[in-house]
Amino acid sequence: MPNWDDLRVFLAVARAQSLSGAGRGLKMDPATVGRRIQRLEEDVNAVLFTKSPQGYNLTADGEQFLVRTEQAEQAITLATEESRDERGKLSGTVRIGATDGCANFLLPKVVTEICDRNPGLDVQIVVQPRVVNLNKREADMAIAVSPPETGRLTVQKITDYKLHLAASRRYLKLNPEIETLEDLKGHKIVGYIPDMIFDKELNYAAATGVDEPEFASNSVAVQLNFLRQNAGVGVLHDFIWPYAPNLRRILPDTFELTRSFFLVRHADDRRVERLTRFAGELVEGLRAEVARLEAHQT
């Protein structure tokens, strides 16, 4: 019968698809991880992984073993939750995957307030240029701009948010006036790198009518700093306005985009009280923070 420590190593390799990646998460050197996997395969009398140039991939036996091991993990997590102290405070570590804009301008305040109410809670925010893979347990939950269509996931809409065209006051003073969207073709544009847009909801080019930005980044924070440095005109989230006092909205009556944030969780986690309670506080906090920041007018 495999011990739980070996099962933890198995889960880490299955999710990271490499010995080194698993080792980083487990604080264990790759050689030790490899020996633990070999021992586990001997214990269960099955080959669980095949090695390829892309990393460690589960075999058919490995896929079946993963299902049973995740069920065991879930049971241990539930048992741990039930033994928490009676004060009702959240504790442990929660990892959130999030897009750049949400991670930089919304989550720090919301998460800090949740942790202030729950001193034993640690929160990690993973900023990635794509949707995190919850099935591989890259995070406990994720905030996405589009609801995923595949996977054993649960999706909850958090809130809508708005975006407008923006530029610095200095840039607008030194360049031709913008009276229509057609006028944008005579201006420098700040936006996403076209071939690095991982979600169609982030493709603002169709709405503005401008295809190629002169100043581009896959990071909202970098785009904001381009605008701050008088580089050109870009599309900016309304919840970022309090962080950008030198910027001004352009064509606010004729151009406005509405997008949404969604909370995505692994389907099995809905039975984990700690994560469900944290998710509830996170959703409530994000809704309030977006409303507060969008009320700021520039």
Low-confidence stretches: none
Fraction in beta strands: 15-25%
**CATH topology-level fold name of the largest domain:** D-Maltodextrin-Binding Protein, domain 2
Biggest β-sheet description: 9 strands, mixed
CATH H-level superfamily of the largest domain: Periplasmic binding protein-like II
Percent helix range: 25-40%
Give the strand tally: 11
Classified by CATH, the class of the largest domain is: Alpha Beta
Overall pLDDT level? 86
> What is Rg?
23 Å
Shape: elongated
Number of helices, counting only DSSP H or I runs of 4 residues or more:
10
Structural class label: alpha/beta
Cα separation of the termini: 64 Å
CATH architecture of the largest domain: 3-Layer(aba) Sandwich
Give the total of domains: 3
User: What is the ordering of alpha helices and beta strands?
Assistant: HHHEEHEHHEEEHEHEHEEEH
Family: Belongs to the LysR transcriptional regulatory family.
Protein name: LysR family transcriptional regulator
InterPro entries: LysR-type_TF_proteobact-type, LysR_HTH_N, LysR_subst-bd, WH-like_DNA-bd_sf, WH_DNA-bd_sf
Domain HTH lysR-type: 2-59
Describe this entry's structure for a reader:
The chain has 298 residues and is an alpha/beta fold. The protein has three domains: 4-82, Winged helix-like DNA-binding domain superfamily/Winged helix DNA-binding domain (Arc Repressor Mutant, subunit A, Orthogonal Bundle); 91-158 and 260-294, 3-Layer(aba) Sandwich (D-Maltodextrin-Binding Protein, domain 2); 160-258, Periplasmic binding protein-like II (D-Maltodextrin-Binding Protein, domain 2), CATH 3.40.190. It has helices spanning 4-16, 19-26, 30-44, 60-82, 100-105, 107-117, 169-174, 205-208, 220-228, 273-294; strands at residues 49-52, 55-58, 91-98, 120-127, 141-144, 153-168, 189-191, 215-216, 233-237, 247-250, 257-266. The strands form two sheets. Strands 3, 4, 5, 6, 7, 8, 9, 10 and 11 form a nine-stranded mixed sheet that branches. Strands 1-2 form a two-stranded antiparallel sheet. Helix 1 (4-16) crosses helix 2 (19-26). The chain is elongated, with a radius of gyration of 23 Å. The mean pLDDT is 86.
